[in-house]
């Protein structure tokens, strides 16, 4: 693994179903983030984690949950998907302890909820 | 509230120079980032400014004026591969990134 990986690449999901988007990084970054990107809007932060064992809510957290059991993994769960959650989801990570806090992004998951 | 403004779309000619502006109003300031995003791909880091002035990196330069809440990204000697969206983002007092909607840059031969 090099950098950040996300799975699945894309998914079509029926409304009401539960779905977990996976994110793994191998850079030992302490901070990780989940964003959604919709046409005409900027990236919007869903949840974040500044260190393993802690999480926080971003701008649009409703309908989503996260966990950070270890440094590398940061899964995002949709408990009961709705069509408004159709979006492209990006996971990112950064090293808050040093440098400019540049965020590195995974390749994204394109989710369609019908 | 927090707000990042940048033009929705710009068009430029191959070989020319283009300047993409970004204005911001945020709660606190811990730096301004520019990212490039090609269609269907993830954003990739271009530049970071935390002090006023110009940062140059090859064909790309980024300028910041904190007193004016203003930044621009300057792209020189445009190439077709520079066709992409350019995202401006400000790190606020909580060290979270606030993102603009992005500027789609179209390069014509």
Describe the structure.
The complex is a heterodimer of chains A (114) and B (109). Chain A is mainly β and 114 residues long. Helix content of chain A is 0%, strand content 45%. The model of chain A has no long low-confidence stretch (mean pLDDT 94). In chain A, the strands form 2 sheets. In chain A, strands 2, 4, 5, 6, 9, 10 and 11 form a 7-stranded mixed sheet that branches. Chain A has a 4-stranded antiparallel sheet with strand order 1-3-8-7, with no helix packed on it. By secondary structure, chain B is mainly β. Chain B has no helices and 11 strands. The radius of gyration of chain B is 13 Å and the shape is globular. Chain A binds chain B through residues 40-45, 48, 58, 90, 96, 100-108, and chain B through 4, 30-31, 33, 41-45, 48, 50, 87, 89, 91, 95-102.
Topology:
The complex is a heterodimer of chains A (114) and B (109).
Chain A: E1 4-7, E2 10-13, E3 19-25, E4 31-37, E5 44-49, E6 56-57, E7 64-66, E8 76-78, E9 87-94, E10 104-105, E11 109-113
Parallel strand pairs in A: 2-11
Antiparallel strand pairs in A: 1-3, 3-8, 4-5, 4-9, 5-6, 7-8, 9-10, 9-11
Chain B: E1 3-5, E2 9-13, E3 18-25, E4 32-37, E5 44-49, E6 53-57, E7 60-65, E8 70-75, E9 84-91, E10 97-99, E11 103-108
Parallel strand pairs in B: 2-11
Antiparallel strand pairs in B: 1-3, 3-8, 4-5, 4-9, 6-7, 7-8, 9-10, 9-11
Keyphrases for this structure?
heterodimer, A: about 110 residues, mainly beta, 4-stranded antiparallel sheet, B: about 110 residues, 6-stranded mixed sheet, 5-stranded antiparallel sheet
